[in-house]
Amino acid sequence: MTILVPNVGENIALSYLVGKTTVVRDLIYRLFATNITPAETDTAGTYTEATGGGYASKTLTGASWTITNGAPTDASYAQQTWTFTGALTTNPTIYGYYVTRVTDADLVLAETFTSFTPASNGDQILLTPHITAD
Question: Mean of the pLDDT values across residues 4-18?
Answer without folding.
Answer: 84
